[in-house]
Specification:
413 residues, five-stranded parallel beta sheet
Length: 413
């Protein structure tokens, strides 16, 4: 913890819930230096995740009701869709990855369907993630919609839920409070109960991942071990020095590319968003294979790149393609870093990650996508927070202390 001020939210303390009566969050208090609210939220995540898993694992609770809804949707062949906006969209992407794996392990993959959403290819036995505005424009017919909205007040997510419900869809919501506007449109509400205190959401990304892991455990009848999750997050939070090394190398770049594949895709999308909203530095998420098809000509020694490579599923295939990307990046002088599974680090020569690397422990006691998504959460957030320090930006308020950006944000409201 940075020594500049005592923590307002000690790491093991319970975070406040939503206001009662419900109201949108107020602008976070201004801090002119670290530790930021973002810093404290990252430090709070190991204990928070342990508390959340304990609260959610109730046989008569909403996690088991969502699992039952998934089983029923699988039985009838309806679509299973997740949705959200911003960080919650990436939480929804992570939820789809976790639930698709759980559906397969529960033996439901042969009957579940995800057809029925315009513009989305149906993939039998999987959950599909759709951005909330697009889901509102082309709502699914029937099945199950699982929405993610940290505070429960996001307009597009509410509209997606409203449109789907009007077409006979069962709606579930993962959110902080069952008193929120989105909760009024949900048949099932999974309350995470502790609210992110900054606007550069960290807890708001982790909480739906933990909730999805719990739903997956209910589906497979194999509960997620809370202490394992806490230890994995604590390991990630401890990588402060490695994150600082990468941040120092990437701070002078003009653009950062974040690359991921498989269960690492949501983390790549989330890191790209985090860098832009916290550090004011253009950043783009790319699929692993896409980077090798046309994007390299726009890069040079002023480009930064972070490759996230932790998914153990089909790892040899992903590693084979990643090697080509690392070699190509080195040839054109890209400042490359990696968030990489510890089991792969030995195969990655240090010269191919000149900006540094953060190691994520292999955690075979957790389902593969859960281990990857929880294992990368704190590292990507720490990297963002340290990059904000290096660039002297405040990550807590999304630049809305500047009147122009405050008015720009209001144009969407």
């Amino acid at each position: 913890m940075d020594p500049y001020r005592p923590p307002e939210f000690p790491p093991d303390a319970r975070l406040p819930g939503a206001p009662d009566p419900w109201a949108p969050s107020s602008p976070p208090a201004w801090r002119d230096g670290p530790p930021y609210l973002m810093t404290e939220m990252i430090e709070a995540e190991p204990a928070l995740a342990e508390r959340l898993l304990a609260r959610l694992w109730r046989a008569d609770g909403p996690v088991f009701r969502v699992a039952d809804a998934i089983r029923e949707t699988a039985r009838t062949g309806g679509p299973i869709v997740t949705t959200g906006c911003g960080t919650s969209e990436h939480g929804a992407m992570a939820t789809a990855a976790i639930l698709s794996d759980a559906i397969r392990r529960a033996g439901l993959a042969g009957v579940a369907g995800v057809a029925g959403v315009a513009g989305v290819a149906g993939l039998a036995g999987r959950a599909t993630s759709v951005q909330a505005f697009e889901a509102a424009l082309a709502p699914q017919e029937g099945g199950l919609l699982i929405a993610v909205s940290h505070e429960g007040g996001t307009w597009a997510t509410i509209e997606a839920m409203r449109a789907a419900r009007a077409r006979g869809t069962t709606t579930a919501l993962v959110t902080v409070s069952g008193r929120s506007p989105a909760a009024e449109l949900a048949d099932i509400v999974v309350e995470t109960d502790e609210q992110d205190q900054g606007w550069c959401h960290t807890v708001g990304y982790l909480s739906p991942i933990v909730a999805a892991a719990s739903i997956g455990g209910a589906l497979t009848r194999m509960p997620i071990e809370a202490s394992t999750v806490r230890d994995l997050l604590a390991e990630g939070v401890s990588r402060r020095d490695a994150a600082g090394t990468i941040a120092a190398a990437l701070a002078p770049t003009s653009h950062i590319l974040v690359v991921g594949s498989g269960a690492d895709r949501p983390a790549a999308w989330e890191l790209a968003l985090k860098i832009e909203e916290a550090c004011y530095l253009p950043s783009t998420a790319r699929d692993l294979e896409s980077m090798l098809h046309g994007h390299l000509p726009a890069t040079d020694e002023s480009t930064g790149m972070v490759v996230i490579l932790t998914d153990p599923e089909r790892r040899p295939d992903r590693w084979d393609r990643a090697q080509g990307l690392f070699l190509a990046a080195a040839r054109v002088g890209i400042r490359t870093a990696a968030i990489v599974g510890s089991g792969l680090s030995w195969a990655l020569p240090p010269k191919l990650t000149p900006a540094g690397r953060i190691l994520v422990p292999e955690t075979p006691d957790l389902p593969a996508p859960v281990a990857s998504l929880i294992g990368t959460a704190a590292p990507l957030q720490l990297l963002t927070e340290r990059l904000a320090r290096a660039r002297r930006t405040n990550p807590d308020r999304l630049r809305r202390d500047d009147p122009a950006y405050r008015e720009a944000a209001a144009a969407y409201e």
